[in-house]
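Supplementary Text 2. Reproducibility record for the structural model of the 312-residue chain.

All settings were left at their defaults, and a single model was retained for analysis rather than an ensemble. We include the record here because the model underlies the residue-level annotations in Supplementary Table 4.
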Amino acid sequence: MVSIIITSWNALAYLELCLNSLAQYTTVPHEIIIVDNNSVDGSREFLQSIRLQNTRVIYNSINVGHIEANKQALNLSSGDVICLLNEDTVVSDKWLEHLCDVLHEYWLEGVRIVGPLQLSTSLRHPYQQSNCRAYWDQTKASFAGTPYDLLSAFCNGFSYGTFVNDLLIVNKGGDTIIDSPPDFVSGSCMVLSRSIIADIGFFMHPSLRIYGPDDVHLCWSAAKHGHSTIRTHRTYVHHFKHAAIEANQFDRTPYLQEANNVIFHEWASTLDKFIDRKQADGDSLESITNRYYMIKKYMDWRVEKTLPRELC
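Retained model, structure tokens:
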């Protein structure tokens, strides 16, 4: 069984979309654990009014943060497979079946974490010349309406199911074991084996408070213990990105700065060796930073700290 963990904080319209898509597209045995961080936008009343099978809701009296909420849900979960899912996501047909299939098919190769296709500059839009990330940013900047209407505009008026089918056709690919570190799959939709939590010693990194790159820590720590992460082209999950942050006008900057200090101090040597290896293979530093998001963040952090690589 899969335990699907969702945290909720004042993003009702997105939460409704997410849960509706789960009900429509989830075919494998599962439980849903939702942790509401003291929402005041009607989310709590909505969750109390609906009846979803195999669903439990934790109602926090204060906002304990995304990371602590995930820990709360894990403590209640019973699945051998854990799925982290943001409230501002929309899943697609057989999404969880595909992710679990990949996890099981590559188990003997050490794969313990799997992520779907999501918005990125490398993902082709099925109906536009621009990539999915660029077209999403363009659509979001010029559109005013509900999340459902925004998603429909991004899909060029086609149904979401048709859009996903066409997107998968034009982005044919396999299952790719990623270079982790520095690469990672987004915690907005991530499937992982419960067994790696015991292996790496934590679910959410102990240094993270309230908000931070928990997905980066998970993927990199799994690699440190001999496990791999796959990004699969078999399914797509749409992520609106930062809906709760924007809805709550939450300033995540100090938490990210603190988290970056921790993660880059811990992983500096590994990241430096990765950069050296890529440059020895003929890649320029510019191409490396363009391809790997966390390498770009690491280089920016080094400049901010004015530390030479060997002292990081």
